[in-house]
Write a structure and sequence with these properties.
Helix content is 27%, strand content 28%. The chain is of the alpha/beta class. The chain has one domain: Rossmann fold, CATH 3.40.50. Helix 1 runs parallel beside helix 4 and helix 2 crosses helix 8. The strands form two sheets. Strands 3, 4, 5, 8, 9, 10, 11, 12 and 13 form a nine-stranded mixed beta sheet that branches. It has a six-stranded mixed beta sheet with strand order 6-2-1-7-15-14, with helices on one face. It contains eight helices and 15 strands. The structure holds flavin-adenine dinucleotide.
Length: 323
């Protein structure tokens, strides 16, 4: 533990905690992040991760997603490792109109029947950020440290009161951990699993559009690796891969691209999505100069919303600190 008391303690070192920590530290605040799990062990490290705002709810979701798109696009242009802008198709098995958020994106066009795999009724083509999470989380950690932030791992906080011993302002980015830490029974775990295979040469993504998280079929190219998805097992809180789930993912993806049936499996990724009826991003004034800003419950869209949420949290914190 260092001797300087930080202005802000951030709980959590997944994509929410690191991105928020970076924005706070780069606005000249002294920031400490405390987390049980290091970035590489978090659910964030398991994500695919394609920018797509559909699997989280909050009136500001489209704003947060649009802002995050801009930042990811700039990071990709700057050549940040693991951040790519990729063309591809999102498609629905039922006929639906293209969503309003999609129609403003680069490369947008409605798909015709010839553009869609068998079993899909409508879809749209666009360019999306796809992020290779392990290297991306490493660059966020490096960026935080370069801005003077601290990272402390390995201890599980029992309460947010314990966190307030470190700083008068605590930002709660504990993901599914918020269920016990807050405690917030509205947070429910949804396990997700992906299969990493050697990419046989796919350059474009394909993502199934569903109203709710479920057994979606998606393929996310990341250079020589192709991530196949996905699953959504409600109530499952252990991030362990299940062989039957992996086999079903490969089978569904092979229906669209038959060459994947024999693709070499490189590994499995499993994480726990922090599902909540609505993202919780708000200031809780505990009195006596003690404040908590919550930033959790991003369900299946935490990467896609990360920069927009981090900027809203930073504005709240600066307001609390009277800047
Ligand atoms: C398979 C899969 C695929 C996904 N695909 C996508 C995608 O394509 N696009 C997208 O946008 N999103 C995707 N998601 C969702 C996304 O991964 C999550 O929304 C996001 O990772 C949540 O990040 P977080 O930082 O809030 O939580 P986490 O990554 O879970 O991090 C929580 C942090 O808090 C710490 N913590 C928790 N409790 C405590 C405590 N009591 N004391 C100390 N530390 C604590 C943990 O140790 C950890 O460091 C996917 C998720 C999965 C599982």
């Amino acid at each position: 533990m260092t001797s300087h008391r930080p202005d802000v303690l951030v709980v959590g070192a997944g994509v929410s905690g690191l991105t928020t920590g970076v924005r706070l530290a780069e606005s000249d605040l002294r920031v400490r992040i405390r987390a049980l799990k290091e970035p590489a062990e978090t659910s964030s490290a398991a994500a695919g991760a394609i920018w797509d705002p559909i699997y989280a709810k909050h009136p500001r979701v489209e704003f947060w997603a649009a802002r995050s798109y801009q930042v990811f696009e700039a990071l990709a242009l700057a050549g940040l490792p693991g951040v790519r802008m990729v063309d591809g198709v999102e498609a629905s098995r039922t006929p639906i109109p293209s969503p309003s958020w999609a129609s403003v994106l680069p490369g947008f066009r409605e798909c015709g029947p010839d553009d869609l795999p068998a079993g899909f009724a409508s879809g749209w083509h666009y360019t999306a950020p796809i992020i290779d999470m392990p290297p991306y989380l490493r660059t966020l950690s490096d960026r935080l440290l370069a801005a003077g932030g601290e990272l402390l791992f390995g201890s599980q906080l029992q309460s947010l009161g314990e966190a307030l011993a470190d700083a008068d302002v605590v930002v709660n980015c504990s993901g599914v951990g918020a269920r016990d830490l807050v405690p917030d029974p509205e947070v429910q775990p949804i396990r997700g699993q992906l299969v990493a295979v050697r990419n046989p040469g796919l350059q474009e993504f394909f993502a199934e559009h569903t109203d709710e998280l479920g057994e979606m079929t998606y393929l996310l190219p990341q250079g020589e690796v192709l991530l196949l998805g996905g699953s959504a097992e409600k109530g499952e809180a252990e991030p362990v891969p299940v062989a039957d789930v992996a086999a079903a993912i490969v089978a569904r993806c092979s229906e669209i691209f038959p060459e994947l049936a024999d693709a070499e499996i490189l590994g499995h990724r499993t994480g726990i999505r922090p599902s909540r009826p609505e993202v919780r991003l708000e200031h809780e004034d505990l009195g006596g100069g003690r404040h908590i800003v919550h930033n959790y419950g991003h369900s299946g869209a935490g990467v896609s919303l990360s920069w927009g949420c981090a900027e809203d949290v930073t504005a709240l914190v600066r307001d609390i600190l009277g800047d």
